[in-house]
Amino acid sequence: MRPDDCHKACIALLAALAVGGCSLPTSWGAGRNIATTETQIVEETEVSNYLQTMYVLATADAEGQRRTFADLERKSARSPTTTNRLALALARITPGHPATDVSTGRAELERLLADPALLVESERQLVVVMLAELDQQQRIAGASVERLNDALVQANADRDRLARELEASRSRAAELQRELREAEEKLDAITRIERSIRERTDDEPPR
Length: 207
Fold this sequence. Notes:
The protein has helices at 3-20, 24-27, 37-59, 62-78, 82-93, 102-114, 121-203. By secondary structure, the chain is mainly alpha-helical.
């Protein structure tokens, strides 16, 4: 997948999640504790905020992207709460802005997910979705790299084959030139012999 394709896919995903984000905590996984209505509303609002920030980073102009990311960095540095850390990590994995740093963002998401006490259920589910999306993008990128490598191998094989054919053509051309020179030399020799015979015939007195 090309970078532009990844960017478009991310925008589409964020738009879909932003629209359906309110169902995120309750629609996945059976057997979990159901949050109270008030808690659920708070969690859904937080998830919507994360998604909205990611969408802005993916679609805003350069100045809007810069201001949004700088604000997230400032909040996380001043107050490294789980909310601020998660917002910054999600911003880092969002493609399409200058501060995108997938490896750093992914590492932070994995650290947050590894501690069950840090994330509420809606945040945990959001992180799971985003990590799954990164895995999918990595698989697609890996497949693309593999296809590119195959194409390069084939191109190198074709280049080597053409080089051999060119060398064979050059060798054949050199052989033909040698044969032509030999034929010309034989023709010159025959011409000299014929001329010599004519000259001797012309010099003989008539009988």
